[in-house]
Specification:
218 residues; two-stranded antiparallel sheet; mainly beta; 62% strand
Length: 218
Amino acid sequence: MGYTKVDVKVKANATGTISVGGESKVLSASKTAEIMDRNTGFGDLYVQPLWLNWRKKYYEIGVSYGLWCPTGFYDKDNIANIGMGFLTQQLQATAYYYPFGTHGTALMFRPTYEWNSKKIDKDVQPGQVCTLEYGIVQAINPRLEFGLTGYNVWQVTRDHGSAALNKEVLDRVSGFGATITCWAIQHKLAITGKFNQEYRAKDRFEGTAWALNGLLVW
């Protein structure tokens, strides 16, 4: 399940019209407008057909390939969508370093590369994206883990399509946060809660994100 709330505030320096999603407002100079939208529903489904993992005493390395399927709620006239509205292929590597030789404390490093299909409702194909996540994870007990994380996201190729906006601008955002993971069934079923605070966004929204994810391994 997902919950998204977007609250946009704009101050005009000249008379004009602002359009966000399917809503437009006419503003005069020095006036401020606020546009808000929120939605709750199921998010996009992630399917991971390939996951390879190597584990030693002081390190663990994994490589995976997966797809984010556009199953979540999405409407082009909304600015607070739960789903993204396009298919994303994802190639990811994960490395853990265990400084004490046990798996209780780990330093984490995770690069991800994503390439996207066209949106389901208009002629826009979002550019390819590179993400770098890093942090430290501490196991409280065999079923409970807590982590402090940071990340940087860069768009590395331009958007394409007749409906694409700001084609020459590459998006970016950074963030920091915390995670907590509970293994309901050890090594089989996990529930992860995440909190992230974003900063240094360019050509995209910046805000606070909460997420609750489930992982089933078989």
